[in-house]
Amino acid sequence: MRSATVIGTGAIGTSVALALTRNGVAVHLQDVNSTAARTAEAMGAGSLQTPQEPVDLAVLAVPPAHIATELARVQRSGLAHAYTDVASVKAGPHRDLHSESADAASYVGGHPLAGTERSGPLAGRADLFEGRPWVLTPSAHTEEAVLNRALELVALCAATPVIMDATSHDRAVALTSHAPHLVSSLMAARLGHAPEASIRVSGQGLRDVTRIAAGNPALWQDVLHANAEAVAEILDAYAADLGLVIGALRALASADPVARKRAADDVERLLEQGCEGRARIEHKPGTSLADLAAVTVTIPDQPNSLARVFAAVGEIGVNIEDVRIEHSPGQGQGLVELLVRRTAAPELSRLLGAGGWSASH
Ligand SMILES: NC(=O)c1ccc[n+]([C@@H]2O[C@H](COP(=O)([O-])OP(=O)(O)OC[C@H]3O[C@@H](n4cnc5c(N)ncnc54)[C@H](O)[C@@H]3O)[C@@H](O)[C@H]2O)c1
Ligand SMILES: O=C(O)C(=O)C[C@]1(C(=O)O)C=C[C@@H](O)C=C1
């Protein structure tokens, strides 16, 4: 791919543009918000100049409800040879192609399963999609060359392509993305009127559970509107489990030992099912959470501490599969949780300890 235009230079569009630019593609940027477009340009994501000839690929990174209209508009102007998008829902935009008289042959739907709760170009990162699934939803009309061009985009962003039909995609992400967003929002909403004394004793667990609740409400409203039925189905099942666990928690205080035992079993089963479900989210091909163990290192709040601990792990020769940091500004020290292969954890912990770090696993 030699040239591309990204339409919508928010968090995702700017990330795509940065990844393509880094790979030597000449990227052109468009946004209805000129500040967003200028910011993306200043970040090195591409140029605001109109391309002189059709680009190889146009990537629409605007909210889902605008995809079909924007697609028809840019197709009419002959902007590109091939078109794709990154919207979080696929069946709606596919359906709207017809009413907007968009050309289905030169378009393939797309959705990278990577993102951020932040909006706008400043949240863009060239490495956002690395190692993440990127769904492509070719229709019966999509030309092979167009699908191939989108596959090239996925490869340049270092993501992993997954081909699905639009409806199966929407059903799948109802479970893996859209319902989780609402669950996070529901929990975060409990905090709105909570006493300050309770908020003050929040740790990393609450931050993990509520991070995505900070996402742009307008964008999520659009996404949920387009996938409402499938999300409602997941939440129906969730509500049934929730009812069960609430009943069990109340029964734990019951005077009846049989009811107490049954309730304890119900709670235990649910917690175990949670661990099993969580273990199914693979970190990278061939590595599930069950294969990983955490080594926790205390780091002082001093310049270069994180870099030094990473360098120490590198010298020991252990690969860090994932990392979590628990730290608040003003705290004298932080905790870094290094997720490494389970088999490597004891030795890593020992060697870090020998090197002067306070480490445990
Ligand atoms: N945020 C995520 O985590 C995430 C992840 C994967 C995919 N997506 C999808 O990516 C798309 C963009 O999301 P985002 O998070 O980057 O949002 P964002 O709010 O950061 O950016 C959207 C940008 O689109 C621009 N825009 C809106 N309408 C436009 C139009 N008609 N023409 C040109 N520009 C227009 C806005 O001005 C804004 O700059 C959405 O379809 C979303 O569903 C989001
Ligand atoms: O990591 C996040 O912030 C996200 O919410 C990203 C996330 C998700 O994983 O659910 C959200 C919506 C997108 O369509 C794709 C990815």
Automatic annotation (TrEMBL):
Top-level taxon: Bacteria
CDD domains the record matches: ACT
Cross-referenced Gene3D superfamilies: 6-phosphogluconate dehydrogenase C-terminal like domain, NAD(P)-binding Rossmann-like Domain
Prephenate/arogenate dehydrogenase domain mapped to chain residues: 2-289
Stretches that traverse the bilayer: none
Residues in ACT domain copies: 294-361
GO molecular function, one term: prephenate dehydrogenase (NAD+) activity
EC number: 1.3.1.12
Pfam families assigned: PDH_C (PF20463), PDH_N (PF02153)
Pathway: Amino-acid biosynthesis; L-tyrosine biosynthesis; (4-hydroxyphenyl)pyruvate from prephenate (NAD(+) route): step 1/1
PROSITE patterns cross-referenced by the UniProt entry: ACT (PS51671), PDH_ADH (PS51176)
Keyword set, alphabetical order: Amino-acid biosynthesis, Aromatic amino acid biosynthesis, NAD, Oxidoreductase, Tyrosine biosynthesis
Catalytic activity: prephenate + NAD(+) = 3-(4-hydroxyphenyl)pyruvate + CO2 + NADH
Family listed: Belongs to the prephenate/arogenate dehydrogenase family.
Protein name: Prephenate dehydrogenase
Organism: Streptomyces pseudovenezuelae
